[in-house]
Amino acid sequence: MTQMRLVVVGAGGRMGRAVIRAIAEAPDLVLSAAVDSPGSEWLGKDVGELVGLPPFDIKVTDDALAAFAASEGVIDFTVPAATVAHAALAAQARIVHVVGTTGCSPEDDEKIAAAARHAAIVKSGNMSLGVNLLSALVKRVARTLDEGFDIEIVEMHHRAKIDAPSGTALLLGQAAAEGRGVSLAENGVFSRHGHTGARRAGDIGFATLRGGSVVGEHNVIFAGPHERIELAHKAEDRGIFARGALAAARWGRGRKPGLYSMADVLGLGDI
Fold it and tell me: Structure pTM?
C-alpha cells in the first residue's frame, strides 16, 4: 500500500509539531501539507524549520481547503471552532479526520457528527493507548462498585492549557458514568467552593490543577468505606498522543463514514 498522505492543522502548536515529527519517523506515512491559522508567524516557512528538522520542501500555509484536497487524512489538535470548520472540509474532501481537540460544546459535537455522515471521523479526548485502556478499566470498576464508593477525578496540566477540566478527565468521567448507568451531565460536579454541604451519593467529582510544564496526569479515585482504589495515568511526552493519532489515521483509511473513537481503533470492548 502506498504511503498515506496526511495534513496537519494547527501545525505551529505543541501537538501540531509533535505530529509532524511523528509522521517524519513513520515509513508508511508522508506529510502532504501543514496548515496554521491566518496571521501565524510560521506561514510561508519550511516545515523543517518549524520542527527543528531538515527542510521538507513544504511551506506552512493557511489554505486548508487546498491542503485537504491533496491529502487522505487530517490530524487536528486545534480549537473547537477550527475543528468544526475542518470537519466540514474533510467531509467535502471525503478524507479521514482525526480529532484530538478538546473543549468542544454540545453544539460543536453535533456539527462534527453531521460531518461524519460523509467522512470517517475519529474523535477522542485523548489519543494515547494508556489513557484509553484506563478509560475501559474505569468503566469496568464503576460498574462493579456500588454508590458506596465515591468517584473523584483529579487532573493536572501545564500552565498554558486553556480548557478545564481536560478532555481526558471528561473522557474518564463519561466512562465512570456509563459504568454506573447514570448521566455525567446530571451527576458531574465540576467546582466546589464555600459551604457545599455533604457530598451527594452518586456524584462524580472533578478537580483541576494547572502549573509548570506538566504534559498530563490523571487519577481516578474510588473512595469507599475504609478502602480506596486509585487508577492513574501520567503522560511524559506528547509523542504518545501523536503516535495514537497516527494509528487512528491508519485505521480510518478506507473506513466507511461515521463517528468513531479510540476505543474503536484499539478494539477495546468492556473489560
Answer: 0.84
